[in-house]
Design a protein that fits this description.
The chain is an alpha/beta fold and 305 residues long. The protein has helices at 41-47, 65-68, 71-80, 95-105, 162-168, 172-179, 194-197, 220-223, 240-245, 251-261, 279-286, and strands at residues 3-9, 23-28, 31-37, 55-59, 87-91, 114-118, 125-129, 133-139, 147-153, 159-160, 184-185, 191-192, 198-199, 206-210, 228-232, 265-269, 292-294, 300-302. Strand 3, helix 1 (41-47) and strand 4 form a beta-alpha-beta unit. The longest helix has 11 residues, at 95-105.
Length: 305
């Protein structure tokens, strides 16, 4: 049962110091979501051996170039390799217009359907649910409408105690019913309470993506307790005033959000090109929230079952 984040790009504004712009892939039980798509995304997908045509859903945070300029090229490549299955793309108002304009003026004709979903940027809401996960939008504060995302694994079935299967001679239908939480009626008419034959299910895993945003405690209730929190960390704390002016966050901003929300692990990224040594940002973030890791191109972060 996979729940793994792969960083494709961690830089802000432009590629620098071997870092590409913002993009990540989240694998939830072999269903792949692409989160943001800066320039170079499809190169990283190829380098890290992630099939572009296995991506079913794309989540875009906002329409700044370092988060979307890789999208037309990626879609074009999907088309060139013969993609047929539909692609769902979520993002703020204007994303559909942007992509359709690029395709129209370049006379690009796709052999698969794109389903566009406009996401309201100023409220927390569930935007997608399937058998694997639920996806929520998060209101962020940036210079243009910007959305964060929270992905939560679907509730797991209860685990049945193997000894009980043999003891009560349970058939397949009874086992599946017990996993769903039902009490079981045996052939002799006796009722076995569910808690007597099952074990508590493991906790559903979760990830929240807070793209470009200034410090905003309003998101704390929405990301509370997530296993992984990605929060942009463009600047060191000595540039707090610049961060506020440009609607970005510092190391201490990200760390304080993680601490207040009680998350399991913090991933920082979207580094300013001025920083070559990222350990400076890491050590400063850990002053407040110790369980912090750097987002680095190619890095994988897993949440175990």
């Amino acid at each position: 049962m996979t729940f793994e984040l792969t960083i494709l790009g961690c830089s802000s504004a432009m590629p620098v110091h071997g870092r590409f712009m913002s993009s990540q892939v989240l694998n939830v039980n072999e269903k792949l979501l692409l989160i943001d798509c800066g320039e170079g995304t499809q190169i990283r997908l190829s380098e890290y051996k992630i099939s572009k045509n296995k991506i079913e859903t794309i989540l875009i945070s906002h329409l700044h170039g370092d988060h979307i300029f890789g999208l037309p090229g990626l879609i074009g490549s999907m088309n060139l390799v013969g993609r047929k299955k539909p692609l769902d793309i979520f993002g703020p108002l204007g994303l559909e217009y942007y992509l359709k304009t690029v395709f129209e003026i370049s006379e690009s004709y796709l052999g698969f359907e794109i389903n566009f979903h406009t996401v309201e940027h100023n409220k927390y809401t569930k935007i997608l649910e399937d058998k694997n996960m639920k996806v929520y939008s998060l209101p962020l504060e940036h210079r243009i409408p910007t959305v964060g995302y929270k992905i939560v694994e679907q509730d797991r079935l209860r685990n049945i105690n193997p000894e009980m299967i043999e003891r009560f001679d349970l058939n397949y239908q009874q086992i599946q019913a017990a996993k769903r939480g039902d009490d079981i009626e045996l052939d002799n008419g006796n009722i076995i309470k569910n808690h007597e034959i099952t074990l508590e299910p493991k906790k559903s895993r979760s990830f929240a993506y807070c793209s470009d945003t200034k410090y905003n405690e309003g998101i704390v209730p929405y990301v509370e307790g997530v296993d992984l929190l990605y929060h942009e960390t463009t600047y060191l704390k000595n540039l707090q005033s610049k961060a506020q002016e440009r609607f970005h966050s510092t190391t201490h901003d990200a760390a304080n959000i993680a601490k207040k929300a009680g998350v399991g692990k913090l991933i920082i990224g979207h580094y300013s090109s001025r920083y070559k040594d990222l350990d400076l940002l890491l050590s400063e973030t850990r002053e407040i929230f110790d369980n912090t890791e750097l987002a680095l191109d190619g890095k994988k972060i897993s949440v175990k079952c």
